[in-house]
Design a protein that fits this description.
Oligomer: homodimer
Structural class of chain A: alpha/beta
Strand order of the largest sheet of chain A: 6-7-8-9-10-11-12-13
Shape of chain A: globular
Number of helices of chain A: 21
Largest interface: A-B, 142 and 142 residues
Helix content of chain A: 40-55%
Radius of gyration of chain A: 26 Å
Chain lengths: ~550, ~550
């Protein structure tokens, strides 16, 4: 065991004492966490999975798991899994700690080996994808609690959950709970978008308690520091803030360096102008100063800082469309080209990059987004917000965006940023976070299936087999949200006996098609066709002979 | 006014007295129903729409509306809108009342003129689409309460809601409420899938209170008549049941005439066998009798009956896949070819036809479904259940299926059959019905947008304009579900003042991108660029000169 246990001395303090999250098996009955051991460079890597125990075939199934170490007191933070890896790495450091830097030197890091085991691929493949910029491993050397993961078009599709308080709502304890809640249901990364008071302290609690990469939008904190006066923002303040956050262990920064002066006028005729907070801040700064965006003009200085900590860029799409009307316009695609240019600069420094994407896009215009992004950003991973495929359903934007997310995920997007039912209306509470994460797990999983991921297909097969065999408990436990599935079933048939019944309240016993199919198969078996193969074989032959006017089979 | 008022003498009876649905504007504030008058053949057709009044531009917007006449006592049924049309038609009848029959003779019926006004197209276009089988108008001559509508790939995408009790749940009153609830939120047709007791009486209540077409699966009632003994089903009993339901006014029948003996063996190696109730019943009958499906062998007799009432076929996909694993297999596509063959037979009788489709299909296999259907079924309208794009989210199957529904709708499906959160688990209650309908309205509307429907785009534009201008009330009232949108907003900012505030709790006042965009535009205006056009023009010129290194605009 090489994992550093939590250090009581770095205990976080809060008047109210946040409790550990409730036990995992309360959300996922008959599941428990397992760790597979993998040896790498003298370290034993422990790869987390969630094992679901089943009554029927295949007996158990091991699922990719993001829930992190369980049962720890938030005050103490999580165990420091990466401490020894990073210490060893610092002994022969050249000032650039980025995973891309190592990958390009041919080194398979502990993070890469860990990810290969998690994704079920070769460590060398992970290294190559990172070296070529097609995937990133957001892993700040100061985020020792991280369970490494990868974002790239040739890996499992990932999802991000946004948390964070605003000036009018929410405290630290609630944000830590949203973090735990997000990763429990399947968030692969979490962005802390806090903008109110205690922004530094909130972030400290979040990073120390997060086993998934944490992203931020540093311009928000900068704006707090200048009391909301956009024109007072400077590159010095920005770099100072990046360093403050990088020291804490933030794994990726959203930076709106592509909002150029020349693109701002292109938004004037839009239906909804600029809807990215960071984008609108930078646009206003540019206009107030009659100068080019300082994030663009000082981009190399930012790269220098990023590589010291291995913080990844998430190049923000400050000019993303905020309505169906504005989708795929010149402002959006102009900025995208600049993001491609910046990608090349970051890669010159071996700094990892992903590219943010829209937004609000009708279905017929979605594919152009990923195709253009792939081309102008040289296959850097795409990270999209939805997209929402219509504007008319506030209150249901997890669904309007889940549709677009599934499609763009299938077509190659590497990570999907969730949208909750509260989008456009207010800050999400815990239930909204769950709805958003589950909806995006559906979208990401559907994308994995459509891309032919065999691990994804295994879970669908296991659940469908359980469904067909009336193993209700297995069906619930294999689902994304066992609590809800069970509760819905029990609303009409709460008795324990109903958990083994060969029907449900939807159709009742006489009309259950699966029950009747069972009868059909039994009938075939009685008539001498005992195995499914024999049945299929025998019947196929008969089918070939069959005249179409009432021949006989099964006889 | 040519509409026959409800006839107290045909009053329906029920121990509990179902109340009229609550007023429409409780669900849709600042909306009221309007009727546009259109003259046709001496009749005044009154076209229903829902007008939403707005504080800002464009002042009001008229929406396609399915909610039907309001405020009527369910005991008395709805006004008999079509009574005089049908009476006039019966005076020169030739025994075939189907809309296709009239269309092929070059006649534009009242239903076609009504639909043309509703869809915003030419009546002759409606006639042509019906004549060529690309669209159907489900409109039994005994369903006089119907507000005519059309299902076809060149019209607005429609959605269907399923209601109906099962042996273990639900009564008549509840089913009437689900009907009203479904159409209020936007269901274009409703299927009554009742299987328990009082199946005839439940249907009578539903048809008399429905302004949308009602579909059924008649084999369910047949099975009740033979006490669940599938082998006792006969074509005589089936035709008798069709007539009973046709007399009541059912507008379309799902008939599983494509489940042929030779396809049944193809399901033996499936993960989930046969999952259609009707399909499994017919498969079992075939095996029990060693005979071909009597719905197939007596298909012309069924056509003869259908045309007497103008009941449309919904040719059932009894062999649709019930799991991702089984999608697009030989059983499914074999049956589809038979449905194409049956379509030609129905058309020979001028009987209208739509084709049912799956089911469970991964995203990468969806398009093949609509492309094949279009080809082998000669462009007859496609009517799909979802499809669900993954099996692993019971409790969320409105979402897993809404994704597939939106995609296949975009690609040409004419009607989407909703799926509720209770799918696979139990019977939907009123809230589940609403969730299903709203989700499917999202899918259908997204499909309309992607197909370039300008009426659909108008609503998105109106809502996005309201959003950008901080007209919160307009934003709520233009949404698919104003109640929910308002409630979510008010959770964090309940004060009335917040309804005109230029921010919400998501970002707070300092970080509202739309607020900042307003500032940007104000700034431009102050500096001499007063209109948006001038702004855009002036800035575009500047942009062209701009060096990329800090030029000045707005000066």
């Amino acid at each position: 065991m090489t994992i550093q246990e939590p250090d009581a001395s770095r205990g976080l303090e809060l008047a109210a004492d946040p409790a550990p999250a409730r036990p995992l098996d309360q959300s996922f009955p008959r599941s428990h966490k397992i760790y597979r051991s993998v040896e790498h460079n003298g370290f034993t890597l422990r790869i987390p999975e969630r094992r679901v125990h089943l009554d029927g075939e295949p007996g158990q199934i091991d699922l990719y798991d993001t829930s992190g170490p369980q049962g720890h007191r938030p005050q103490e933070g999580l165990p420091r899994l990466r401490q020894e890896w990073i210490e060893a790495r610092k002994e022969k450091a050249d000032g650039n700690f980025s995973q891309m830097h190592y990958a390009r030197q041919g080194q398979v890091t502990e993070e890469m080996a860990y990810i290969a085991a998690r994704e079920g691929c070769d460590p060398e493949f992970v290294r190559l994808e990172v070296a070529e910029g097609r995937a990133i491993i957001p892993a700040n050397i100061n985020h020792l609690e991280l369970e490494p993961m990868i974002i790239g078009r040739n890996f499992k599709v990932k999802i991000n959950s946004n948390i964070g308080n605003s000036a009018v709502s929410s405290g630290i304890e609630e944000e830590v709970q949203k973090l735990q809640w997000s990763t429990r249901w399947g968030a692969d990364t979490v962005m802390d978008l806090s903008t109110g008071e205690k922004i530094h302290e909130t972030r400290e609690w979040i990073v120390r308690n997060s086993s998934v990469p944490i992203g931020t939008v540093p311009i928000y904190q900068c704006l707090e520091k200048v009391n909301g006066k956009i024109e007072d923002l400077t590159i010095e303040l920005f770099l100072e803030t990046l360093r403050e956050q990088a020291e804490q262990g933030v794994d990726y920064f959203t930076i709106h360096a592509g909002v150029l002066l020349r693109y701002v006028p292109l938004t004037a005729q839009r239906m909804t102008g600029i809807v990215s907070r960071g984008g609108s801040i930078m646009a206003k700064w540019c206009l107030a100063h009659h100068q080019e965006n300082f994030l663009y003009t000082h981009f190399e200085a930012i790269c220098e800082l990023m590589k010291e900590y291995d913080v990844s860029f998430s190049l923000g799409d400050g000019l993303r469309p905020g309505s169906i009307h504005d989708a795929n316009d010149d402002a959006q695609f102009g900025e995208l080209e600049t993001l491609g240019e910046l990608t090349k600069i970051a890669w010159k420094h071996d700094v990892q990059v992903m590219i943010e994407g829209p937004g609000h896009v009708p279905m017929n215009k979605i594919k152009e987004n990923i195709d253009r992004q792939s081309e102008v950003c040289h296959e850097a991973p795409f990270y999209t917000l939805g997209p929402l495929v219509t504007d008319i359903a506030p209150g249901y934007d997890h669904i309007t965006s889940g549709i677009g997310a599934a499609m763009i995920g299938w077509w190659g997007t590497a990570m999907l940023c969730y949208v909750t039912p509260k989008e456009h209306l207010g800050l999400p509470n815990a239930e909204d976070v769950k709805q958003g994460v589950v909806t995006y797990r559906i979208a990401a999983h559907a994308a994995d299936l459509a891309r032919g991921n065999s691990k994804a297909q295994e879970r669908d097969d296991a659940l469908s087999r359980a469904r067909f065999e009336f193993r209700w408990e297995d069906q619930f436990n294999l689902s994304l949200d066992p609590e809800t599935a069970r509760a819905y079933h029990d609303e009409t048939l709460p008795a324990d006996g109903a958990k083994t019944a060969h029907f449900c309240s939807m159709c009742g016993p006489h009309f259950c098609s699966m029950k009747i199919t069972e009868d059909v198969r039994d009938y075939a078996a009685e008539h001498g066709l005992e195995s499914e193969e024999a049945l299929a074989e025998g019947m196929k032959e008969k089918a070939a002979e069959f005249s179409g006017q009432g021949g006989e089979i099964y006889s």
